[in-house]
Amino acid sequence: MGRVSHAQAQANRRRVVERASQLFREQGTGVSVADLMKAAGLTHGGFYKHFASKEALIDEAVTDAFGELAEFHATTLEEHEGHCVEAQQSLIDEYLSVRHRDNPASGCPVAALATDMARDSGGHGAHRTYTEGVQDFAQRLATHDEDGIARLSTMLGALLLARATKDSPLSEQVLSAARTALSPAPQPRV
Question: Distance between CA atoms of 132 and 137, rounded to whole angstroms?
Answer without folding.
Answer: 9
